[in-house]
Amino acid sequence: MNKLEMLYRQVIMEHYKNPRNKGLLNDPNYRTLHLKNPSCGDDITIQSKINNNNIIDIRQDGTGCSICCSSASVMTETLKGKTVDSANNIIEDFYRLIKGEEPLDPDALEEAIVYEGVAKFPARVKCATLAWKAMGAILAGEEGERHEE
Ligand code: ZN
After folding, report:
1. CATH number, span 3-147
2. pTM for this prediction
3. Contact, 98 vs 124, CB < 8 A?
4. Predicted confidence (pLDDT) per residue in 60-91, tens digit
5. Centroid of ligand 1 to alpha carbon of 75 (angstroms)
6. What Å distances lie between residue 108 and 71, 78, 97, 101, 103, CA to CA?
7. What protein residues have CB closer than 5 angstroms to ion ligand 1?
8. How far is C-alpha 12 from the chain's CA centre?
């Protein structure tokens, strides 16, 4: 493992141990979406408050592996305060990164760049993208239960 990979791993473990924006709110102004990854047992719920095309807040809760839970934490920090359009672009870029493709705007990924190495582990791809898929679905107007196959 080189120095950069070690640094990325530290960021991932730090978010896993100290997750940001964790815990759901009982607030009707938030949209909620629950998503599972049966292949790993990851189970994530994302909530978001969106006003006039701006993402005011994002909450996350759930259980799963370190990649999935840390990625949910990183996602909330990366997309909070963004417009819906720029968040959708960042989500698409995150999928490119995870597939081993070149992101269009790597700087906009902020800390999410630490998941670059996941491209080498196809079994972990769904873990890394689960929270981002849930957020993407909320941005597309979905709510409630969704199951990832
Ligand atoms: Zn997982």
Report:
1. 3.90.1010.10
2. 0.96
3. no
4. 999 999 999 999 999 999 999 999 999 999 99
5. 15
6. 16, 8, 12, 15, 9
7. 40, 42, 64-65, 68, 127
8. 12
